[in-house]
Design brief:
225 residues; alpha/beta; Spore Coat Polysaccharide Biosynthesis Protein SpsA, Chain A; seven-stranded mixed sheet; 16% strand; globular
């Protein structure tokens, strides 16, 4: 039986966090927000919306926040954790799609795969994701449809067997490469793509962060970082 929590790293997401928490709550046993040193009241708003909140004293990066969330989730007897962004780019209504894929495939990791429509996706984001997908597929040894998607369902037992070191946006690639190298089952589930909707803007810098992700990916794969 699957017992599921949602992990939401958030940095200055006061404008969106309550809506994200409220949207996720019907689909999971608990929503856990990791406030990554916000200064805009994100943690308070998350609690009011019904989330359990972990507060970091300073901005430490997305991966660091997620690692704290995974550590907490593993002590609460959850079997799986869904990771979501706190800026509204992931639709909570898509959570059942990931759950269904996990049940059908017994996957250790289900990636919420976005449709890459160049007409809807910002140009820089389209190319950074395309490069990331090709690199991930080569390094993992199987097709990866959305290497940079932060909307994922992890089996916590499988995740506990690998050592995660990344601090920022390279987390998605690190988890992919290390779970793939460990022989874990990786599946995909189709999700909606939300860009430029007047509500959410990604904090990721496409050129800088893509270069960083690529360099770290090679280190994860060939140097065992």
């Amino acid at each position: 039986m699957m017992t599921i929590c949602a992990l939401i790293p958030a940095f200055n997401e006061a404008a969106h966090i309550a809506q994200v928490v409220e949207g996720a709550r019907p689909y999971v046993e608990s929503v856990i927000v990791i406030d990554d040193g916000s200064s805009d009241g994100t943690a308070e708003l998350a609690r009011k919306a019904g989330a359990f909140c972990i507060e970091l004293t300073s901005n430490s990066g997305k991966a660091t926040a997620l690692r704290r969330g995974f550590t907490h989730a593993s002590t609460q007897k959850f079997t799986h954790a869904i990771t979501m962004d706190g800026d509204g780019q992931h639709l909570p209504q898509d959570i059942p799609v990931l759950l269904r894929a996990a049940q059908e495939t017994k996957a250790d990791l289900v990636i919420g795969a976005r449709p890459f429509d160049r007409a809807l996706m910002p140009r820089a984001r389209y190319y950074s994701n395309t490069i990331g997908n090709r690199l991930a597929s080569a390094l993992v040894g199987r097709e990866i449809k959305d290497s940079q998607s932060g909307f994922r369902l992890f089996r916590l037992e499988s995740l506990s067997r690998i050592k995660l070191r990344s601090r920022r946006y390279e987390f998605e690639m690190e988890a992919l490469i290390k779970l793939g190298r460990a022989g874990c089952i990786i599946a995909h589930a189709p999700i909606h793509m939300v860009y430029n909707n007047g509500q959410a803007r990604s904090k990721m810098k496409p050129v800088r962060d893509t270069v960083r992700i690529c360099l770290w990916s090679l280190a994860f794969r060939f140097l065992g970082a």
